[in-house]
Amino acid sequence: MASIKQKRLEGIIRKNLMEILQFDVKDPNVGFVTITDVKVTNDHSFAKVYVSFIGATNRKEALAALERAKGFIRSELSQRLDIRRCPDLIFEIDKAEENARHIDTIIDEIHKNDNTEE
Question: Does domain 4-117 have CATH number 3.30.300.20?
């Protein structure tokens, strides 16, 4: 279980990353990205950043664009954070939205089957 200090750090990293992606990253391939969650390891050496792309036709290209800009993003983040060592960033596509859609379609199918049986 994460401590209060670690949760606070995750929130600060999330807020700063959102600002960096919105105002400083100039790569048009990134598109409109939303950071859904940040998980920092206990030793603060890695930060797993869960992202969601809105309106992106190809998420893998947008994720590759984030990977290319990772060095710039990390250097900007290190200037904004007041910690000894800035964590390495690991970007991952957040699957929660896809899972929610999948569950919704299953529930819709169940309701349709119930209606046809009656």
Answer: yes
